[in-house]
């Protein structure tokens, strides 16, 4: 799951974050009429290619038939077959014990179950949706979980992204006719390295997961600059389930459409249901600051200051500024603090590399360029770092 933030006047504008968001059954829920009043269809063009809820969770009949045949072959060839939910977990190799899962995690766009099955890869949301669709083939019960992991930061264009995490459990069938010695729920998680044992988990229903799915897709469309599609997706998400963080997404879309009045209205409405949500407060602060409403901005900013210093890109941006001003020792300190917060971001190591080079420390410059190259996922970044490393080595 994704949170996006854009830089604006030194304040971050946020979008989507999957943490412990309004999942409590005792939390107040907005009414359908209140949600409907927040939409402004007249600002956007109609979009037709929005997946329905059925599209999200459905598999082609041929896939369902293939999976059923695979289970039948297993059952006929095994003397003591395991329960079907255990077989399914093994079929997708969810535990990845041998490191060679048939289906694997890939940090790409959010996809429907059929798309993910065809590609044998997807992000955590896509893989959870696909696994749920496979479970539906066998009428296996599922439980979805929102995991309160430490946020993983990324950046695309003007947006900062924070990725959350969801997984699911496959439940044993409740039958008086069949007894399995080891019938227990199976956790399906495609990122076991997260050591999920240490994080809080909140059970969510399929409606909330569906709303999260649309929320992800809306964020991805916003990054691509397709506001009409982003709006259509987030509207579908809010109608599927009243997932409060999706209101923040809607407000960001309005702001990028140029309707700051409507964006502020939605931000403040979202804060009625979660007054301490940092994401929404960041976004509201952007509008207040740009409009010169400094007293209101100062009140919000007091709450935000602690959250800001937890953001690794705060230190990275300070490093960039110091580097541009040729304050290399200062830049080095800022970049190092960014790495301390998020040692998986290639651009942080690139910042260290070029700063060490400017300071005459060629050995550390090369070492950090190698790290930047190893961490980069995009081919363009890898080639750029490789070219710079070769230039350093030939120096």
UniProtKB/TrEMBL annotation:
SMART domains: TPR. The keyword Repeat applies. TPR repeats lie at residues 244-277. InterPro entries: CellSynth/LPSAsmb/PSIAsmb, TPR-like_helical_dom_sf, TPR_rpt. It comes from the Bacteria. Transmembrane segments: none annotated. Keywords: Repeat, TPR repeat. Signal peptide: none annotated. This is Tetratricopeptide TPR_2 repeat protein.
């Amino acid at each position: 799951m994704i949170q996006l933030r854009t830089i604006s006047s030194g304040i971050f504008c946020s979008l989507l974050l999957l943490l412990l968001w309004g999942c409590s059954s005792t939390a107040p829920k907005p009414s359908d009429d209140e949600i409907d009043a927040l939409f402004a269809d007249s600002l956007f063009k109609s979009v037709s290619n929005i997946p329905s809820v059925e599209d999200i969770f459905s598999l082609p009949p041929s896939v369902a038939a293939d999976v059923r045949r695979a289970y039948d072959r297993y059952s006929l060839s095994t003397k003591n077959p395991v329960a079907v939910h255990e077989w399914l977990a093994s079929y997708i190799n969810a535990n990845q014990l041998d490191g060679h899962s048939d289906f694997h995690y890939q940090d790409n766009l959010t996809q429907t179950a059929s798309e993910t099955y065809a590609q044998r890869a997807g992000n955590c949301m896509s893989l959870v949706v696909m696994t749920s669709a496979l479970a539906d083939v066998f009428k296996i019960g599922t439980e979805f979980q929102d995991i309160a992991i430490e946020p993983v930061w990324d950046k695309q264009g003007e947006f900062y992204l924070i990725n959350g995490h969801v997984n699911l459990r496959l439940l044993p069938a409740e039958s008086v006719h069949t007894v399995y010695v080891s019938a227990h729920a199976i956790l399906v998680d495609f990122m076991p390295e997260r050591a999920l044992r240490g994080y809080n988990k909140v059970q969510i229903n399929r409606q909330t997961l569906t709303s999260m799915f649309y929320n992800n897709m809306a964020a991805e469309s916003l990054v691509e600059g397709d506001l009409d599609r982003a709006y259509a997706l987030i509207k579908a998400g809010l109608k599927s389930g009243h997932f409060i963080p999706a209101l923040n997404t809607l407000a960001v879309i309005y702001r990028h459409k140029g309707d700051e009045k409507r964006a502020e209205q939605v931000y403040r409405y979202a804060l009625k249901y979660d007054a301490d949500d940092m994401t929404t407060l960041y976004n509201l602060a952007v509008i207040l600051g740009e409009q010169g409403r400094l007293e209101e901005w100062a009140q919000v900013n007091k709450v935000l200051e602690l959250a800001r210093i937890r953001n690794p890109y705060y230190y990275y941006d300070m490093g960039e500024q110091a580097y541009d001003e040729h304050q290399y020792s200062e830049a080095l300190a800022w970049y190092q603090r960014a790495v301390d917060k998020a040692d998986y971001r290639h651009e942080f190591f690139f910042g260290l590399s070029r700063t060490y080079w400017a300071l005459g420390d060629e050995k550390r410059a090369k070492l950090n360029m190698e790290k930047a190259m190893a961490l980069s996922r995009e081919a363009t970044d890898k080639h750029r770092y490789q070219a710079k490393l070769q230039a350093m080595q030939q120096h």
